[in-house]
Q: What sequence folds into this?
């Protein structure tokens, strides 16, 4: 094909520009003749931007995961639930339930049921504490002291929480 003078298959030119990588770019295989686009919204002008964001940043699932995790942090660290209306309580509870369901669905798909903690979980706690030490030393101190006392055998376990807390995943690089 590479050395032909154009008398080959009608698809020869399409396959010359065909990319096989971790993802296959079908648009390059058929353009300009045929270029299928998944239109994300009614604003068709955004399709190229959406495709670029998806290829550079990650899937909608990844993007939503980051947003859900960030909201979980904000809820756990800054929200005074006593100031919420019953409707607002339901909204926060629904978000926390959504985060739990997503985490469970991922675990089910990956075949990693949550049966206790392992080394990766301990590493995540350490990474989270290191991050908190730099971002919020005042919050880090009491948490680290509580963990230190537990490891030293001075406390029997986790302190009781007055209300449910959200599950927060520490992103790994």
A:
């Amino acid at each position: 094909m590479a050395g032909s003078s154009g008398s080959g298959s009608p698809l020869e030119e399409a396959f010359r520009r065909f990319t096989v990588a971790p993802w296959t770019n079908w648009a390059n295989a058929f353009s300009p003749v045929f270029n299928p686009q998944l239109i994300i919204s009614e604003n068709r002008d955004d399709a190229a931007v959406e495709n670029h964001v998806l290829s550079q940043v990650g899937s909608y699932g990844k993007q939503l995961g980051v947003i859900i995790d960030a909201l979980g942090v904000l809820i756990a660290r800054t929200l005074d639930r006593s100031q919420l209306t019953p409707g607002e309580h339901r909204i926060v509870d629904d978000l926390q339930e959504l985060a739990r369901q997503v985490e469970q669905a991922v675990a089910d798909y990956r075949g990693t049921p949550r049966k206790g903690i392992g080394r990766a979980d301990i590493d995540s706690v350490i990474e989270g504490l290191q991050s908190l030490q730099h971002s919020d030393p005042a919050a880090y101190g009491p948490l680290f002291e509580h963990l230190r006392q537990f490891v030293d055998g001075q406390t029997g376990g986790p302190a009781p929480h007055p209300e449910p807390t959200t599950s927060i995943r520490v992103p790994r690089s």
